[in-house]
Amino acid sequence: MRVLVCAAVAATCLAITSTASARENQVARGRYLVTIAGCGDCHTPGHFLGRKDPRFLGGSDVGFGIPGVGVFVAPNLTPDKATGLGTWTNQQIADAITKGVRPDGRLLSPIMPWKSFAHLTHRDALAIAAYLRTLRPVVHQVPGPFGPGEVPSVPVMTVVPPTLYATFKPPPK
Ligand code: HEC
């Protein structure tokens, strides 16, 4: 009898340890994928302005302008409930990354490279979601998206004709 109890306790401990280490492996895989996919470049404030900002994946402060379509700012991917992904399920995060669909049904602009990320395995997309959940929540609501006629509240990167580029003078600092 005692042998049986010991065996049951040992099996439970083993199961808990292996679940914990499977989760650690999943988060490590997610961190690896986020690093090589460059999510931080578009989704971290300061990145496009050459400034270091500790709010990793806390939402950009520069928009991508698609002429005739609008301006899209890469949102906050940290688990803050009000301004980030805190209320999204792992499945909803995976769907946004690989299908470009937000929980409210809006299709994400292809500036977010979801058509490339559609080639991720479901397991890897869920690993990314699991990693994003471990980030320190950042309170930062990005503005937009802005329609074609609207004046965006952030600097914009876009494609301009060569003559406009050649004559453009950056504003004095
Ligand atoms: C080239 C820039 C770029 C890269 C790289 C990028 N994103 Fe995005 N992402 C965006 C933009 C811009 C949006 C907003 C598009 C829109 O509003 O239509 C977005 C939207 C999202 C959304 C939806 C969030 C929301 O609140 O609507 C998620 C989730 C997301 N990206 C995750 C990721 C992950 C994870 C990676 C890396 C695997 C990544 N993105 C890489 C630019 C990028």
Structure description:
There is one protein chain. With 173 residues, this protein is mainly alpha-helical. Helices cover 42% and strands 6% of the residues. The chain has one domain. A hairpin with a 3-residue loop joins β1 and β2. The protein is elongated, with a radius of gyration of 21 Å. The model has no long low-confidence stretch (mean pLDDT 92). The chain binds heme C. The site of heme C has 24 residues, from α1, α2 and α3. Heme C binds next to α1, α2 and α3.
Helix content: 40-55%
Mean pLDDT: 92
What ligands can be seen in this structure?
heme C
* End-to-end gap: 80 Å
Shape: elongated
Domain unit count: 1
Uncertain regions: pLDDT < 50 for 5+ in a row? none
| Structural class by SSE content | mainly alpha
Determine the strand fraction and express it as a percent band: 5-15%
Tell me the major beta sheet.
Answer: 3 strands, mixed
Helix count, DSSP H or I runs of 4 or more residues: 6
E-strand count = 3
Strand order of the largest sheet: 2-1-3
Q: What is the N-to-C order of secondary-structure elements (H for helix, E for strand)?
A: HHEEHHHEH
**Rg over alpha carbons:** 21 Å
Tell me the layout of helices and strands.
Blueprint: H1 2-37, H2 39-43, E1 63-66, E2 70-73, H3 90-99, H4 114-117, H5 122-132, E3 156-158, H6 162-167
Parallel strand pairs: 1-3
Antiparallel strand pairs: 1-2
Bound molecules: heme C (HEC).
